[in-house]
Amino acid sequence: MRRRVDETAASKRTEGKSVKRETGEVQTKTKSSWWVWVKRGLIALCTLYVATPFILQFFPSVIQYLVYKHAVTYFVDLRRPCDLGLNHTVNMYLTSEAGVTLGVWHTVPEQKWKEAQGKSLAWYEQSLGDGSPVFIYLHGNTGNRAAPHRLGVANVLSALGYHVVVMDYRGFGDSTGKPTKGGLITDALHLYHWVRAHSKDSLVIIWGHSLGTVVATNIAVKLQEQGNPVDAVILEGAFTNIKCQKDSPNPSPGITGDFHTYSTTFPRTQLKQISIYCSMVKTANEDILFYSSLKKMTTPLMILHSKDDHMVPFRMAEELYNTAKSVLKSEDKVRLVAFDGSHGYLHNGLYRDPSLPNYIREFVQSVAK
What local confidence, expressed as pLDDT, does residue 278 receive? Predict the structure, then answer.
């Protein structure tokens, strides 16, 4: 009897050691497998880092995507702005040139909300001439007109009693074509002339955000040269020049652009990305310069910038303000509104500031005088 008990106990000890051994082997295999995937991931990242300049050189379509991140979409039907709470907004399409159709939203002043229900496109077009100021909003280089911060700006302006016309450039959203700087300017000019044709004597103000600030200043100068100047311009999150030397891929010190990955907010850690962007600019034949337009512009101007902007340093807003002030030779026609960094607005969140409507209202009133 005792022998059987001893044999049973020994058997259990043997089985226990076997289970522990098998468990240890499984854990070792798991750790080994995890480390293999880590090494593969690091090798893939290093390969991509080294290969990026060559990819940019031999595949121009990648360059276009990086400069204009228009392929980023939202799961929303752009034909139905009402799905996003814009119940006093109409969706329409304009043709800026052959083969290019632009998706556009027109939001009427908030007080027209009830009247706008069920109205046709013709009613919206006619409403542009009701005497209320009209804002043309030119957005940045990612996404489309349904982005949350763009909806936020439209709601703020509509609540103030203004019309808001928001366009997706060619290749963005549901607009056709492929984006280039020249194409974006052509699209914005077409939209401006369309608005002018329907707005009668109403004020027309262009609001450019981020990449849209380049488009805004360029068309403001062109309209000025044509003798048909815009009434005012607002620049939000504007940046200074991107200067790349012809014989060097590296940018001039302290120069950046609104291309997110290529910001010099932390130049030491992002110099490689800046160099890549410079090669993109030259390869894509893009002249992304800001001062050249701003130095010619005599339009009343308001610059909005958050001090914690993580894409475009606040010092750039100060540089632009000083440049515009010297050109206009007046402190009354140019304003710089700085938002404290403690609010956390960063690059896209200024629409959340409770004081923003007052700044806009005061600016519009000064332009209307």
Answer: 44
Q: What is the pTM of this model?
A: 0.75
The burial class, CB within 10 Å (0-12 / 13-18 / 19+), for 278 is buried
* Antiparallel, parallel or unpaired: β 100-107 and 163-167: antiparallel
Which positions are annotated as active-site residues?
210, 309, 347
Helix/strand number for the chain, H first, E second? 11, 8
Query: Which pLDDT score, from 0 to 100, does residue 38 have?
Result: 76
Low-confidence ranges of the chain (pLDDT < 70): 1-32, 48-74, 241-291
Rounded Cα distance between 278 and 321, Å, is 25
Q: Nearest Cα to 135, choosing from 162, 153, 161, 102?
A: 162
Q: State how far Cα 264 lies from the chain centre.
A: 17
**Cα separations in angstroms, 129 against 66, 133, 185, 303, 328:** 39, 9, 24, 27, 30
pLDDT for residue 164:
98
d(CA 242, CA 130): 41
Q: Is 201 left (phi over 0), alpha (psi -120 to 50) or beta?
A: alpha
Q: What is the pLDDT of residue 18?
A: 55
> Tokens 């982005």, residue?
147
Say what the pLDDT of residue 328 is. 86
Token duo for residue 175:
């607009």
Rounded CA Rg of the chain: 28
- CA–CA separation, 38 vs 270, rounded Å? 24
Tokens standing for residue 315: 């010092």
Q: Are 194 and 94 in contact (CB under 8 A)?
A: yes
